[in-house]
Write a structure and sequence with these properties.
The structure is a homodimer of 93-residue chains. With 93 residues, chain A is α+β, with helices and mostly antiparallel strands. Chain A has a single domain, classed as Arc Repressor Mutant, subunit A, CATH 1.10.10.10. Helix content of chain A is 53%, strand content 15%. The first copy, chain A, contains five helices and three strands; from the N terminus they run H-H-E-H-H-E-E-H. Chain A has a three-stranded antiparallel sheet with strand order 1-3-2. In chain A, helix 1 runs antiparallel to helix 4. The longest helix of chain A is centred in the middle third of the chain and has 13 residues. The relative contact order of chain A is 0.18. Chains A and B meet through helix 1, helix 2 and helix 5 of A and helix 1, helix 2 and helix 5 of B. Chain A binds a DNA duplex (30 and 30 nucleotides) through helix 3 and helix 4.
DNA sequence: AATTTATTTAGAAAAACATCTAAATAGAAG
DNA sequence: CTTCTATTTAGATGTTTTTCTAAATAAATT
């Protein structure tokens, strides 16, 4: 949790690509892994960081674990970034 | 350059704090360093990563080097993040 | 020209991270 | 209740990152 974990999670190209995959809807850990040439263990590790950052949540179903985007945290990131846009100042923070 | 460098740069709490400091206007490397308990060499290294990511630019003046926010790249980050917001889909990308 | 002030570069050490293999867990199916 | 499938956890290893100290550069001042 916290913007620090969020930005740390977003710092990895692999994790950003996982998020892009999830734009198309929920995927199981295995399905996500198919898109990368890494072991399932490594993917699992990346997923746990995305989860810790609240960028995704998981739903356990049968013996699968499905991952889904958590849209709400992206709003937080947007707000953080917005403070640096041209014409922004202290007001409204 | 590129979104990868940008997110990598934003992944560090120190570098994010530097950006926040620069919201108040340009600062020299030394002035930035005063806000942290790190050597000037370390700060210089962080500044060079922010520069590489185009999040800041530098202006050399006298024997000082001033750093300033580069607002344009934050727009790029906003766009990247926006694709994950609720109600976003492929259209418009 | 020598010295001081501001910053960067180089190189080294320590900490954090990514990735792997192997073992553990958990549920499904035989 | 054993075996198979999906995923995670643990521990090891290599790579990247952070940070430091010391040396280098560069402009300003004496």
């Amino acid at each position: 949790m916290g913007i620090a974990d969020t930005f740390k999670a977003l710092g990895s190209p692999v994790r950003r690509e996982i998020l892009v995959l999830l734009r198309g809807g929920r995927l199981s850990a295995g399905e996500i892994g198919e898109h990368f040439s890494m072991t399932g263990a490594t993917i699992s590790h990346h997923l746990s960081q995305l989860k810790k950052a609240d960028l995704v949540f998981e739903i356990k179903e049968k013996n699968f674990v499905y991952y889904e985007l958590n849209a709400t945290v992206f709003e937080e990131v947007m707000l953080w970034v917005a403070q640096f846009r041209e014409g922004e100042n202290d007001e409204g923070k």
